[in-house]
Design brief:
CATH architecture: Alpha-Beta Barrel
Radius of gyration: 17 Å
Strand content: 15-25%
Number of strands: 8
Order of helices and strands: EHEHEHEHHEHHEHHEHEH
CATH superfamily: Aldolase class I
Helix content: 40-55%
Oligomer: single chain
């Protein structure tokens, strides 16, 4: 039985004080929640404050990105050791906004995945198709390319050390959510791809989240699907009550 994982991606929102208040509010609201693992991914500047706010709670810390080198002349980048030092257990890799706005391709994402997995942190590996790709019936082709290239030459010894997030780009921040049937179909396909890489026993234990306009009113039907193991939540994770309701799906 896979333990669901609900992660809040705060993106480029919240100052340090705002992040600390939001994290503290979430901790208070979900302190009795046992339905899922809970992860907060604030901006880099707020990692320390959020780490302090969630200390001793059932909420864990994640980051939104990292570099694939340990250190060096990479102005503006963040090393995995910095994230570990801040208390992170998870890091989002390959989010569609990184792919779209910062030209991250599958090869770069693969380098980051290898580094994260070797570091002991758990990557939340994001994949998903654009609206045009879905309209052209290329969804499975895109997912296959992103999975096989992004996870190329990676051996997964522990299925709990990887989280996959299926985020159809056309559903992120648009208010449009994939139907439960669309989401389940994509998740099953992804799990079958993972089985081709590492065997069905490992694939059945890897958690696959859904992301894309997840809200309190659609989380239950998504979580009822056989292959959906949680959610990567954007806007709704910026409000204490809405995120708490999602966590208690």
């Amino acid at each position: 039985m896979r333990t669901p994982i609900i992660a809040g991606n705060w993106k480029m929102h919240k100052t340090t004080l705002e992040a600390k208040a939001l994290a503290a509010g979430i901790v208070e609201k979900v302190k009795e929640a046992k339905e899922a693992q809970i992860v907060l991914c604030p901006p880099f500047t707020a990692l320390g404050a959020v780490a302090e706010a969630i200390k001793g709670s059932n909420v864990e810390l994640g980051a939104q990105n990292c570099h694939y080198e340990d250190k060096g002349a990479f102005t503006g980048e963040i090393a995995i050791s910095f994230l570990s030092d801040a208390g992170c257990k998870y890091v989002i890799i390959g989010h569609s906004e990184r792919r779209q706005y910062f030209n991250e391709d599958d090869a770069l994402i693969n380098k980051k995945m290898k580094k994260v997995l070797s570091s002991g942190l758990i990557p939340i590996f994001c994949i998903g198709e654009t609206l045009l790709e879905r309209q052209k019936k290329q969804t499975f082709d895109v997912l296959k390319r992103q999975v096989l290239h992004g996870l190329q030459e990676i051996s997964l010894s522990d299925p709990l050390k990887l989280v996959v997030a299926y985020e159809p780009v056309w559903a992120i921040g648009t208010g449009v959510t994939a139907t439960k049937e669309q989401a389940q179909e994509a998740h099953r396909y992804i799990r079958d791809l993972l089985a081709g890489l590492w065997g069905s026993q490992t694939a059945e234990q890897v958690r696959i989240q859904y992301g894309g306009s997840v809200k309190p009113d659609n989380i239950a039907e998504l979580m009822a699907q056989d292959d959906i193991d949680g959610a990567l939540v954007g806007g709704a994770s910026l409000e204490i009550d809405s995120f708490a309701r999602i966590i208690k799906f």
